[in-house]
Amino acid sequence: MNRRTFTASLLSAIPAAGLLGTKSFAQSMRDITFVQPSPSAINSFPVFVAIGEGFFKEEGLNVRVEAINGSGAVLQALSAGQAHFGRPGPGPLIAARSRGVDAVHIYNVAARSNFGIVVQEGSDVQEVEGLRGKVIGTGTADGAEVGFARNVMTGAGMKEGEDYEFLTVGDGGPATAAFLNGEIDAYSSSTADAAILNQRGMAVRDITPAEFARFFGNGIATMADTIREDRGLVEGWSRAFARGHAFALDDANRDAVLAHLAAGNPQEGEDKAFQSALFDAVRSKTIPTDMSNGLGWYPAAVWQEWQDALVAGGEISGPLDDLGAAWTNEFAAIGNEAVGG
Questions:
Q1: Strands (E), 193-260
Q2: What predicted TM-score, i.e. pTM, was given to this entire model?
């Protein structure tokens, strides 16, 4: 796995092996690792805010953040014991569980879909049906954007390999080049990806049918044995993460939030106007349409829809024996209690 490591205050280097359960005895703090599927600090903004505001420190946790390539790699790191928490998509997590990976989603970060299929502004394609026989670019081969796009295309009655093709092209500059070179006709992008393309002068528009907005995106995951054997860690993480999320939703804290994000990824902070606009776009996707259960809550019905789409698209051979084991709302409830929700 190719990794990019972000160092925050009170962090120390941790070897790839033996990450779980290590402690910094000099500081009486516990070192843990969080893996994210892209280098963007904005996409994982509650983590960087919770680091910067000291919420993790209050729970006795030093959080090291590593960026690796896509949800598949995130789940691999979790299952290999190289990370405690990660931010994979629901589709890859269900697929991993079908292969025996006992990962569990514990907090719904992208409560509204943070993916969409985009085409160039001047494209003749006006709706998904127009992609029949076309090539759709993706950032990774097995990331959440792939499962989302496959879901959309299946809903339009199209099958991968027969009616359309995926092509892994990367994100940012490589995606722009793929459009310009005519390698792809559309791109399955996150909210951040689309904003970056537009910033780079590759104007794109979203053609995703509106009904797919209910398909939540990437969330916080850990392994089931971590929940069973180290519940205090999961509860402490959940409290700090939820506090970071709630802090970032309050516009009174905006300057502090953007400063924390720039510390997490200085490149994103170079263009303040773009950083601010991108943060607004990403943040908006984390606010549930129904706040009755607070932040981070998972709707069971949409998990079922995710699984149905994966089965229909051939991504998994059949339903999981226990879909409910793939997610839990108990730690979102603990997090909401910590912020008074």
A1: 204-206, 220-223
A2: 0.79
Nearest Cα neighbor of 293 from 320, 267, 330 is 330
Give me the tens of pLDDT residue by residue for the chain, a chain 341 residues long.
444 343 333 222 223 333 454 443 345 899 999 999 999 999 999 999 999 999 999 999 999 999 998 899 999 999 999 999 999 999 999 999 999 999 999 999 999 888 899 999 999 999 999 999 999 999 988 878 898 899 899 989 999 999 999 999 998 889 999 999 999 999 998 887 888 888 778 999 999 998 888 889 999 999 999 999 999 999 999 999 999 999 999 999 999 999 999 999 999 999 998 899 899 989 999 999 889 999 999 999 999 999 998 898 888 999 999 999 999 999 999 999 999 85
In what helix (H) or strand (E) does residue 103 lie, and over which residues does it extend? strand 103-107
Contact 232, 84 (CB under 8 A): no
* Residue 280 in tokens: 């607004």
Q: What CATH architecture is 4-111+216-338?
A: 3-Layer(aba) Sandwich (3.40)
CB atoms within 10 A of CB 135: 17
Record the tokens describing residue 7, joined without a space: 């160092």
CA distance 125 to 121: 9
Give 3-state DSSP helix, strand, coil % of the chain, rounded to 5. 45, 15, 40
Q: Which CATH number fits domain 115-214: 3.30.420.40, 3.90.45.10, 3.40.190.10, 3.90.110.10?
A: 3.40.190.10
- Are the CB atoms for 151 and 316 separated by under 8 Å? no
Neighbouring C-beta atoms of residue 281, cutoff 10 Å = 16
Domain with CATH 3.40.190.10 in the chain: 4-111+216-338, 115-214
Give Cβ neighbours of residue 229 (< 8 Å, ≥ 6 apart): none
Q: Phi, psi (5° rounding) for residue 204?
A: -130, 160
Best CA proximity match to 189, nearest among 137, 153, 150, 121 = 137
